[in-house]
UniProtKB/TrEMBL annotation:
This is tryptophan--tRNA ligase. The keyword Ribonucleoprotein does not apply. Signal peptide: none annotated. The lineage of its organism: Eukaryota, Metazoa, Ecdysozoa, Nematoda, Chromadorea. Keywords: Aminoacyl-tRNA synthetase, ATP-binding, Ligase, Nucleotide-binding, Protein biosynthesis. The keyword ATP-binding applies.
Amino acid sequence: MASIIKKVSRRASHVIVSGIQPTGSLHIGNYLGFVKNFVKLQDSNTEAEKFLFVADLHSNSVKPKHENFRYQCRKLVASLIACGVNPSDTLLFYQSQVPEHAELAWHLGSVVTINRLSKLPQFREKSNEDLDGVSPNLLTYPVLQAADILLYKCTKIPVGEDQVMHVNLTFHIIEVLKGLFKKQCFPKPELILSRSPRIKSLSDPAKKMSKSDPNQHAAVFLDDSEAQVLKKVKRAMTDSTGEKVRYDRENRPGVCNLLEIVAELEEKTVEDVAQECSGLDSLGLKLRLAELINETFRPIQRRMKEIEEDEQYLDTVLVRNAEIARETAVNTLKEFKEIIGYDQPQVYFNKLQGSG
């Protein structure tokens, strides 16, 4: 395997932080909407510090996971590396292996009201469905998200449109702390909004593609076989007009969804792709898309298999990267606790030992 880690530079001009939940296999919407964009960000910001964590604490905001959880976490790490995340350039680690995430979230929670948290979209949506089934962790999920960002003094954060309101809570916390302590406790990061369209379900183009969709044909997953990809794409909802392909979001949403996936994979505008496909019917478009997905996923799947089989490599990446991430996290938390007035005898003891 290639070099595993690179020592974090304390003089980096930017700090990029992001996380992804280990809630099942990555689908093509995750790949195009997050993973591919993060890899581009990684490769174009060579002088920046990059932190990418598997958000295993966030995954337990509803119910504790069981025996498959460990497998899902490791598979996600293997998938990310196979897609181009470079653990010698980006610190890739488990959120739960850096306990300062949870401790900072606890401190930040004291400056956020329940009223503000209860108005955020994720909690509002879930609580409307079944309030008795909602845990306090779901309510405070955005506070942990703020801690994830601030713990590494993030200056740039890649984010999808559906998470902007949650990230705005981080900005609110930064301003509240500044007002309370009369100093800038944390930098305010710049949002890097994903320009990729939100890939829709293959079975219902009115819905976002989701790992949890009960319809097994609604999403194409990174580990699907080529036959499965072809079957799912051929069954994708389009329309029965018999017309040639054209981009018409209002009247032909299914066709548009497929065109947008092709455009993202080929890194073209959807208008150019629609023009190229204007001589095809819906089946022709589906066949082109299925082949394109398989061409894209083929080398990724080979690399995933190699990585998953090398348990020692995965362990080394996760342990060493968490250790390095924790160096930054410990320092940030120590500085913040000093600002808010905590007695930290170990800090002063270490200083005395050093001066002796």
